[in-house]
């Protein structure tokens, strides 16, 4: 093998490897963790976070605006304290509300931000006061069954009365 | 005798607890071709490795050009090896390089010469061994004798002061054998170097060398000029030169009684 | 004082153990010596270039073909499972995550060990058996700087590129099966994949793994070649040992690295 040929093939090899890496970087994956410099963090307390995980997306009007960076239990209030890293391009008013939602019936859980009407915006390190917890399927079903039973119990006498 | 280029003084060398060399003293002067003879496994190759500094003596001194090789640091040793050229038993050519590149190898690695000068030098060295026409061949395309000659050209590429030959005659046909033999002599005279030929080929080496050392049982047991050696009455030398099966070097490795080993214990009945 | 006592203790534990320890110690010393001679040999990049050709370029074919097949099998198997849960659209995620995080680096490394690692061992072992290394030393050229270090770096530099090619080919294979054969929607195949594969957490960790594997395999390969007894039998045994040891080390190292990178989400 001539020296020039080796150079040629090694060059081609390097290009192929770079293309493969680029393919993995651009087509296959996405940069979900935003660089720390361009985010600010706020917190929100939830009574129940259901199946929310760290790194779950934070969406507003369906657009991803940040990520969940930390979940811990507040030892005094016994509520879940969730830290969010929000893209510094987006600002939300102080009275925004956070909701834990599920994409589809079995999909992953994410946080939905609903902007409020206040003039002042959330500061870095601030707290979202208005939150609503995750819908836990078991609770939902049992609540439904109970209410069904109650309405059934109410309805039975009237049927008899007819 | 002129100043010795290579000198061994009371050298002892052991692999672990196995003494290979017990007490070797010899010297080789510039312009001399010296043969070191001995049976297989008598430590002849070890002698060459001691000169090259690939092994270090346990006791005694190995001097090359007046310097104690055993006392040098690794980098100093690499520097001194420029003075040495070695022909290995089967040539040890680099199989992935052409004949030309093999001979150019020490020049490219150890000198800063421009490529045009390297080319001239390589062709000169190849001319000296008669293989300028084989410059573009690969080692796999060479016969044993040709490979040995290319390796010789490579060994003399840096014009060494001391040439070492490890069994240069092994496995060659009679023509190649004579060619290599006369090349050893010619090159030594042209370079004004000291050559050490480790061999057990008696006839070929006695024809070209100035002096012979016989090595056995860890030491030099006989020495002399070729004429003196031929006349010698030393039993080991006689056995070696005449190629007798039995003698001071026994045919049988020491063992117990043969009959006992076969289970024929006649004596017990 | 108790140095001898310790040695005797090991001697009683058995010669195999002592031999292994001695070999491991020698391997460590060898590694340091490679690193010490690396700057000089990397400056002459032409030498490493030849070894990249030898270890990397010549392995591309087996890596690419194997990657393609592994990806296609993953897609077929994954589809069968996912379709039971009605989530066949997650096929892209399954294929790409398994390849990028695990199979690309690991299977790529195993193939690399058997294709390039064994060749490196055989080449160095043969150079030793035919006294080429000794000849080099006598020409005042250090064989570690001239032969071993370039082969080591050639392997180390090739491995991550080969692993990336393996993953990319595998994902392409998954695309062929999932989209072309099973009729999944190409848009959701790619977009779901993209939204759940994280560049840092998945792709980059895979690359880091393959760098570690490259170092391990290249070191084992050059060491076994350098340490091989200078006979035909010795070289062939060393070649086998390279493949076996590399496979074990890669799998063990994979567990350790995965445990390190495990974030629990």
UniProtKB/TrEMBL annotation, chain C:
Q: How does it sit in the membrane?
A: Multi-pass membrane protein
Q: Does the keyword Transmembrane apply?
A: yes
The membrane-spanning stretches of this chain are 52-75, 161-182, 203-223, 243-262
Please name the InterPro entries in this protein's record: ABC_MlaE_roteobac, MlaE_Permease, Permease_MalE
Its keywords, alphabetically, are: Cell inner membrane, Cell membrane, Membrane, Transmembrane, Transmembrane helix, Transport
Which locations, inside or outside the cell, does it occupy?
A: Cell inner membrane
State what this protein does: Part of the ABC transporter complex MlaFEDB, which is involved in a phospholipid transport pathway that maintains lipid asymmetry in the outer membrane by retrograde trafficking of phospholipids from the outer membrane to the inner membrane. Probably responsible for the translocation of the substrate across the membrane.
**Record PANTHER family:** ABC TRANSPORTER PERMEASE PROTEIN-RELATED, PROTEIN TRIGALACTOSYLDIACYLGLYCEROL 1, CHLOROPLASTIC
Which NCBIfam families is this protein grouped with? MlaE family lipid ABC transporter permease subunit, perm_MlaE_1
The entry describes its oligomerization and partners as: The complex is composed of two ATP-binding proteins (MlaF), two transmembrane proteins (MlaE), two cytoplasmic solute-binding proteins (MlaB) and six periplasmic solute-binding proteins (MlaD).
Question: Belongs to which family?
Answer: Belongs to the MlaE permease family.
Protein name as annotated: Intermembrane phospholipid transport system permease protein MlaE
**Species of the source:** Chitiniphilus shinanonensis
Cite the source lineage: Bacteria, Pseudomonadati, Pseudomonadota, Betaproteobacteria, Neisseriales
């Amino acid at each position: 093998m001539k020296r020039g040929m080796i150079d040629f093939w090694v060059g081609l090899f390097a290009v192929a490897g770079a293309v493969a890496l680029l393919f993995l970087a651009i087509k296959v994956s996405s940069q979900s963790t935003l660089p720390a410099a361009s985010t600010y963090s706020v917190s929100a307390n939830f009574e129940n976070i259901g199946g929310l995980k760290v790194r779950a997306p934070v969406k507003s009007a369906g657009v991803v605006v940040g990520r969940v960076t930390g979940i811990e239990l507040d030892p005094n209030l016994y509520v879940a304290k969730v830290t969010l890293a929000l893209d510094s391009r987006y600002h939300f008013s102080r009275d925004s509300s956070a909701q834990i939602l599920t994409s589809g019936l079995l999909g992953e859980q994410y946080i939905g931000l609903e902007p409020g009407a206040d003039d002042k915006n959330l500061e870095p390190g601030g707290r979202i006061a208005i939150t609503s917890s995750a819908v836990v399927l078991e609770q939902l079903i049992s609540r439904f069954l109970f209410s069904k039973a109650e309405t059934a119990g109410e309805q039975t006498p009237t049927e008899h009365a007819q | 005798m002129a100043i010795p280029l290579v000198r061994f003084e009371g050298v002892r060398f052991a692999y672990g607890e196995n003494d290979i060399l017990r007490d070797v003293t010899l010297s080789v002067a510039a312009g001399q071709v010296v043969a070191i003879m001995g049976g297989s496994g008598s430590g002849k190759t070890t002698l060459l490795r001691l000169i090259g500094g690939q092994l270090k003596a346990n006791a005694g001194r190995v001097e090359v050009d007046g310097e104690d090789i055993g006392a040098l640091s690794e980098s100093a040793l690499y520097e001194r090896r420029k003075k040495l050229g070695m022909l290995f038993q089967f040539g040890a050519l680099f199989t992935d390089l052409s004949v030309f590149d093999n001979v150019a190898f020490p020049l490219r690695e150890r000198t800063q010469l421009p490529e045009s000068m390297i080319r001239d030098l390589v062709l000169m060295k190849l001319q000296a061994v008669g293989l300028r026409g084989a410059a573009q061949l690969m080692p796999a395309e060479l016969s044993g004798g040709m490979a040995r000659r290319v390796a010789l050209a490579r060994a003399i590429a840096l014009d060494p002061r001391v040439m070492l030959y490890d069994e240069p005659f092994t496995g060659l046909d009679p023509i190649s054998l004579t060619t290599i033999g006369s090349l050893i002599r010619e090159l030594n005279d042209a370079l004004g170097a000291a050559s050490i030929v480790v061999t057990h080929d008696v006839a070929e080496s006695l024809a070209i060398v100035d002096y012979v050392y016989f090595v056995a049982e860890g030491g030099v047991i006989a020495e002399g000029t070729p004429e003196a050696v031929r006349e010698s009455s030393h039993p080991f030398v006689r056995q070696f030169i005449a190629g007798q099966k039995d003698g001071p070097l026994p045919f049988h490795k020491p063992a117990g009684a043969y009959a006992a080993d076969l289970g024929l214990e006649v004596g017990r009945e | 004082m108790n140095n001898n006592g310790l040695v005797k203790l090991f001697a009683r534990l058995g010669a195999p153990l002592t031999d292994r320890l001695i070999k491991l110690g020698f391997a460590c010393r060898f590694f340091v010596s490679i690193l010490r001679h690396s700057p000089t040999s990397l400056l002459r990049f032409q030498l490493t270039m030849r070894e990249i050709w030898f270890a990397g370029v010549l392995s591309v074919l087996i890596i690419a073909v194997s990657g393609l097949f592994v990806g296609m099998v993953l897609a077929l198997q994954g589809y069968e499972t996912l379709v039971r849960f009605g989530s066949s659209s997650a096929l892209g995620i399954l294929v790409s995550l398994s390849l990028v995080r695990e199979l690309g680096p690991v299977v790529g490394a195993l193939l690399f060990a058997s294709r390039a690692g064994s060749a490196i061992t055989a080449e160095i072992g043969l150079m030793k058996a035919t006294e080429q290394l000794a000849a080099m030393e006598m020409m005042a050229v250090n064989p570690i700087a001239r032969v071993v270090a370039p082969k080591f770096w050639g392997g180390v530099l090739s491995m991550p590129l080969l692993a990336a090619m393996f993953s990319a080919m595998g994902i392409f294979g998954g695309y062929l099966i999932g989209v072309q054969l099973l009729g999944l929607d190409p848009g959701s195949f790619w977009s779901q994949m993209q939204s759940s594969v994280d560049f840092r957490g998945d792709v980059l960790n895979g690359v880091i793994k393959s760098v570690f594997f490259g170092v391990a395999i290249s070191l084992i390969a050059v060491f076994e070649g350098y340490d091989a007894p200078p006979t035909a039998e010795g070289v062939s045994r060393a070649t086998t040992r390279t493949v076996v040891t590399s496979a074990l080390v890669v799998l063990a190292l994979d567990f350790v690295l995965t445990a390190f990178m495990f974030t629990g989400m």
